[in-house]
Amino acid sequence: MNPIRLLTSSELCLCTCFLLVLIYRGWSQLFYDWTVSYSQLAPLGVDKQVIVINGMFPGPVLYASTNDVVNVNIYNYLTEPFLMTWNGVQMRKNSWQDGVQETNCPILPGQNWTYSFQLKDQIGSFFYFPSLLLHKAAGGYGAIHLNNLPIIPIPFPQPYKDYAVLIGDWFNADYRDLRASLENGVFLPHPDGILINGLGPNQARFEFEPSATYMLRISNVGLKTSLNFRIEDHPMLLVETEGSYLIQQYYDSLDIHVGQSYSVLVTAKNQANGKSYYMVASSRFTILEHSGIGVIHYPDAAGDPVGPLPLGPGLSNYNFSIEQARSMRWDLIASAARPNPQGSYHYGTIPITRTLILENNVMVIGSKRRFTINGISFMHSDTPLKLLDYFQLNEESKYAAAAALPSSATSVVDAFYRDFFHIVFQNPLLEVQSWHIDGYNFFVVGMGWGLWDESKKAGYNIVDAVSRSTAQVYPLSWTAILMELDNLGTWNLRSQNAENGYLGQELYIRVKGVWNWLDEQSDISARDEAPIPDNVIKCGRAADL
């Protein structure tokens, strides 16, 4: 019998590290079947055809953890083509699954398609929504909750419970009528109200146990309205936004712009003394103030809250909003999806390879009003760009440089892998803009009033700026971001304001490796970018290929 040999300390350390790597890389396969259909609902008392998922509005919460592989089989029982996009999910190396018009052919009525993607190196609060034909105005959205791997500690005590809180403006008109108005150059009217979790005033209820701490994962899933979120007599500890942990600070209220998500911790009172409390999501920067009202309910509460709603900031107080945004900082010490601290990525030391200045506007093209980026309103091809590239079908595209005259074009910015972009969003209009980039997070390094110029770089936050995927730009102001293009694929940069995006305020960033810039898409290694899915839907000029 061979004697048992004890491991040396170095061998034991090596085995432990190997085990930790295995645990870190662990993942699960998750499978969902979602049926997308219509249902007659009346969230604000007016009957309307609403898009539901498995009969639910909002749709089911998609629960997952870092590195899980998610498979969502969507059955389209609408009367129109359908796509779902996953707001803030980066789809690492896999824009085939992004669910927007230039990466995917739509799921036709009566058919189904399975999205399959890995939640690679991500945690946080996000949401999904339908991306075609203004379907979002009829619902079809839901929350995404991505949890940490067990091996990576969260930078706060484990909450007693998580709640999804989806807030957004709501229009009683049918989405088809709203769409027709947009196509005729008539912009969206003022909303009819604000919903909380798809419900009207005092209908959304959140049960609190005394002294327990809750995580509220809040997303603005509306079409165009910035919202202020607050809870009566309950301060909120802000801990995360769109996959990044923040320096923890208490806020009495939060401005949340269209497409943005935040996670806050709220500790219940020791004794509620028989009271319930208001939860409020009120419109910002609008002519008329609308409020969505929910209820925080304690076990001994006698009924619904009474008295006035808790006050928020002034309806047109932009300074409050921009100063609050500037107060948020990236937590350099916390670990998020990976074991190493967030701050180990020193974005401020990376040389900028390209600067883009993107100015939004509204212009008349032909005889109709369209939204533009640098004078160009996006024009969709009859075939998704992703398929055109894969099958080497020529398509004229135009970089969104300033156009002498407003025009329509398929705007594409070509870039190399690991380019480091400096993008300035310039807003000359009187409404808040909200910008999102699929496939990436970026660092919001600066924002300010007036016109941007080179001197503004001196005031950039190059140490602990917030990393996120959706950023606001205030009226007559600018916002600057830094972004490393480390995710190969074709990625949508869009206005999150639904009418702006529907009428052309978007472009695509096409990222390829220097080593395969001249290669055909079909020759690119799966190590660099995911291959075309076996179940890909083909349409347009690629339909018979």
UniProtKB/TrEMBL annotation:
It comes from the Eukaryota. Belongs to the multicopper oxidase family. The keyword Glycoprotein applies. Keywords: Glycoprotein. One of its GO terms (molecular function) is oxidoreductase activity. This is Plastocyanin-like domain-containing protein. SUPFAM superfamilies: Cupredoxins. InterPro entries: Cu-oxidase-like_N, Cu-oxidase_2nd, Cu-oxidase_C, Cu-oxidase_fam, Cupredoxin. It comes from Gossypium tomentosum. Residues 36-147, 162-298, 383-511 form the Plastocyanin-like domain. Gene3D superfamilies: Cupredoxins - blue copper proteins (2.60.40.420).
